[in-house]
Specification:
With 165 residues, the protein is mainly alpha-helical. Strands 1-2-3 form a 3-stranded mixed beta sheet. Helix content is 53%, strand content 10%. A hairpin with a 2-residue loop joins strand 2 and strand 3.
Length: 165
Amino acid sequence: MSIADTLLPEFDQEMATTRRVLERVPSDKGKWKPHQKSFPLAHLAQLVSGMPGWITNMLRETALDLASYPGYSYETTETLLAAFDKHVKEARAALAASKDADYQVPWSLKHGDRVLMTMPRGTVVRQTINHLVHHRGQLTVYLRLLDVPVPSIYGPSGDEGMPGF
């Protein structure tokens, strides 16, 4: 079994769950944040919606330059879902097309000429899936604090049972 074959089922499950969380983000609460040190809701949702695109970059390029990142904006939930769906489709295709040797290639995170880190692609792809799940968890806390029903993730939530049960 290839590395891609082991990653794709988890990727598919986590992206479907993430989409259910993003669908619940209220567009009219974009500037809300639970604490002055926290990200605004819209920025956190934008981060989560874009993270699958990082996986595409990791598998098709050898570096990402943060200096070229446009920064955060306030987008509607519909816009974020469209971006998320596009990124998931592209990342899934990149994962499916990857060969085991691709995961050994060094990948770097840069800011201009400064290299912030370099690790094998396999490591950063796995970390990015985990990183996305972490921020999705933050989004569920934001939803709870805004009294928005939280979807089932790995099991029932306080608002919803398991899908299909």
